[in-house]
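Translate sequence into structure tokens.
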Amino acid sequence: MTAPTARLAPAAYLRCFPFDPRGMAAHREALRRFANRLGLLAPTLYFDNGAPSAGVRPQLELLTRSVLDGQHRIVLVPGMWVFSTDERLARLITSTFAGANCRTVKLPDRFVSIPRPRSGSGSGARAA
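Result follows.
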């Protein structure tokens, strides 16, 4: 028997290529804060650091098995690009999750901290 949805921790999936020695700390923290804002438990993180979009991604495979086994009903992501840079493949993955009664929720842009250039740099360039 599966635990009620409210008691299941959401999943959070991150993929970074090339390898990120800091482990995408800003995205990880933003996903944790977003889960908290939604009233969810802290997310279980699945992270394929250094994995290209096309290729072996062991944590995505583990996440998919966990979703199909009913361990998660929500997957939080900073953007669908974490699944694949190919939109069709990213949609296929989220459709697989949906077929297992699991929603994929994209992090709103305002939750991700983007480093800004220091003021007074004299360059006149604006942060994008």
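Note: The radius of gyration is 16 Å.
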